[in-house]
């Protein structure tokens, strides 16, 4: 899948 | 999710709880900068545009709603609540925060990961969050004596981004593709703004004295 981006952070 | 990020989110939540406690328990917002609170509303609204489009986890969605809701509640309280708004030190809260909004937006137009609406607003929210505390810090220096709850509020707010820096270091070493330079640089600047506050906070804690910031 797509690399874990920082957008999963608050 | 790692322990640093969870600690950061919890510290952030604690700072908001302390602020709400101060306002509701003392029915006063003296020493609190309304401008900083308004900037946080803009930060959260600009950053969580994907609230209804990208579902990441229940935790993520719930926390986003809590941050947006609490920051709106605080601004509403300071502007509309009869008893609270009377205690707002308007003459001490004079930082021209519109320049912070404008500057952050211009910077986001120049420095971003992708030139898309969501990415521009995300970078804008990251830059704005870094400077959002400035009106509050300026107001603390002006008001001289800082009451305990306000001091604790600013302390936890500064500590949360420091935990996030540890989280970015941890993710840098554990996730090869992790792209984080915008948030990390901005987070370093954000935490640096608290440096002198942390120093005086530590001194006051060591001497068990009232927190005094030099004018």
Ordered list of secondary-structure elements with their pairings:
The complex is a heterodimer of chains A (10) and B (215).
Chain A: no helix or strand
Chain B: H1 3-26, H2 34-47, H3 58-80, H4 82-85, H5 98-110, H6 117-131, H7 134-143, H8 148-174, H9 181-193, H10 195-206
Helix pairs in contact in B: 1-3, 1-8, 2-3, 2-6, 5-6, 6-9, 8-9
Subcellular location (chain B): Endoplasmic reticulum membrane
Membrane topology (chain B): Multi-pass membrane protein
Transmembrane segments (chain B): 56-77, 98-115, 121-141, 153-173, 179-202
Provide a compact summary of the structure.
By secondary structure, chain A is mostly loops.
Descriptive overview:
- The complex is a heterodimer of chains A (10) and B (215).
- With 10 residues, chain A is mostly loops.
- In chain A, 0% of the residues lie in helices and 0% in strands.
- Chain B has 215 residues and is mainly α.
- Chain B has one domain.
- Helices cover 72% and strands 0% of the residues of chain B.
- Chain B is globular, with a radius of gyration of 17 Å.
- Chains A and B meet through loops of A and helix 1, helix 3 and helix 8 of B.
- Chain B: InterPro entries: ER_ret_rcpt.
- Chain B: Keywords: Endoplasmic reticulum, ER-Golgi transport, Membrane, Protein transport, Receptor, Transmembrane, Transmembrane helix, Transport.
- Chain B: GO terms for molecular function: ER retention sequence binding.
- Chain B: It is found in: Endoplasmic reticulum membrane.
- Chain B: It is a multi-pass membrane protein.
Oligomer: heterodimer
Q: Summarize the largest interface: chains and residue counts.
A: A-B, 8 and 23 residues
Largest sheet of chain A: none
Order of SSEs of chain B, N→C?
HHHHHHHHHH
Number of strands of chain B: 0
Distance between the termini of chain A: 21 Å
Write down the overall geometry of chain B: globular
- Estimated radius of gyration of chain B: 17 Å
Number of helical segments with 4 or more residues of chain B: 10
Overall average residue pLDDT of chain A: 71
Strand content of chain A: under 5%
Rg of chain A, nearest Å: 7 Å
């Amino acid at each position: 899948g797509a690399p874990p981006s920082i957008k999963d952070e608050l | 999710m790692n322990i640093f990020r969870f600690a950061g989110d919890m510290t952030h939540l604690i700072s908001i709880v302390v602020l709400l406690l101060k306002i509701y328990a003392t029915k006063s917002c003296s020493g609190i900068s309304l401008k900083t609170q308004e900037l946080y509303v803009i930060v959260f609204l600009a950053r969580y545009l994907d609230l209804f489009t990208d579902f990441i986890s229940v935790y993520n969605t719930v926390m986003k709603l809590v941050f947006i809701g609490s920051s709106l509640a605080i601004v509403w309280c300071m502007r509309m609540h009869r008893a609270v708004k009377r205690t707002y030190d308007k003459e001490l809260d004079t930082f021209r925060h519109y320049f912070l909004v404008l500057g952050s937006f211009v910077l986001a137009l120049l420095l971003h990961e992708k030139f898309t609406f969501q990415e521009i607003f995300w970078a804008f929210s990251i830059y704005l969050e870094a400077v959002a505390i400035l009106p509050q810090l300026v107001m603390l220096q002006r008001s001289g004596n800082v009451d305990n709850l306000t001091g604790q509020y600013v302390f936890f707010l500064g500590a949360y981004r420091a935990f996030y820096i540890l989280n970015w270091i941890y993710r840098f070493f554990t996730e090869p593709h992790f792209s984080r330079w915008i948030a990390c640089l901005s987070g370093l600047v954000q935490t640096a703004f608290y440096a002198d506050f942390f120093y005086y906070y530590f001194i006051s804690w060591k001497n068990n004295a009232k927190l005094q910031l030099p004018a």
